[in-house]
């Protein structure tokens, strides 16, 4: 079967690999759609970040080349030995997070914080940019009937955004600001809508992304056009938003996110940082604000799927292109890196 594998930085290839089979405790999936994540782009352009190269990954024992793709949905084709409760034809979404259940984090149920954390589609085992995948049943979530496979491929990134909102002190009716309207920023806006936000500010430089944020109902502020965005937010909200979400990974924006919140407000850090980002801590203490980091997701896939069944996280609001697995490097990875109007590109070996 065909699979997209990461060999080295700037070297990813659609290779012919041995076809996946249903191992014990696993199912064989026909992958319908898999989304390209910002993490995949980082691994391609500047990696390895999470991909094991020198040392085998502690949970999979594998090193590169590894198959990529961790945002995917598919259909069960075969059931492995010892698997109960799943049937051929079941429509499923994969929660790709791997953890050690015996670790401190695993034991207390905070599996996203495990030191040995890995991802199916980055750390070995297989991936979603592939015709078929062998997936442990612990990673499967059943899809409601009215949720499409395309939407299924959005559950993983939506879970990142939704988890950030759940971990924050956000309450229905609150005013919020989302700094950065890339895929996770837009999905954060949608999560906040579902959670009952009042005013949602989206701060974003790209015109195309501004238009998408606006379509989702956010009040858009483009730093290229508006001076002193923080002052404007503080003015309009009588002191600042209740919660600000930082989704750019750009150092000066972290300070802006903090400064845009009110007294006792909260800044949520979603971005993963490659360098230190200096902040002025007085901004926290003089207004008794707090700053909270969030990582990946924990126990939220079912809630995201239920919201999708209710009509949230519509495919057209986030997906800008669908491409065939054979074209994934040029029309997928390169398009996302070069075309500013792209948000989320889905890939399929069967449907595109
Ligand atoms: Zn991802």
From TrEMBL:
Its domain of life reads Bacteria
State the similarity comment. Answer: Belongs to the zinc-containing alcohol dehydrogenase family.
SUPFAM superfamilies in UniProt: GroES-like (SSF50129), NAD(P)-binding Rossmann-fold domains (SSF51735)
What does this protein need as cofactor? Zn(2+)
Protein's UniProt name: Threonine dehydrogenase
The record's section on InterPro entries has:
ADH-like_C (IPR013149), ADH-like_N (IPR013154), ADH_Zn_CS (IPR002328), ER (IPR020843), GroES-like_sf (IPR011032), NAD(P)-bd_dom_sf (IPR036291)
Species? Zymobacter palmae
Q: Give a GO molecular function annotation for the protein.
A: (R,R)-butanediol dehydrogenase activity
Enoyl reductase (ER) domain segment(s): 8-347
Q: Any keyword Metal-binding?
A: yes
- Provide the transmembrane region boundaries: none
Name the UniProt key words of this record, in alphabetical order.
Metal-binding, Oxidoreductase, Zinc
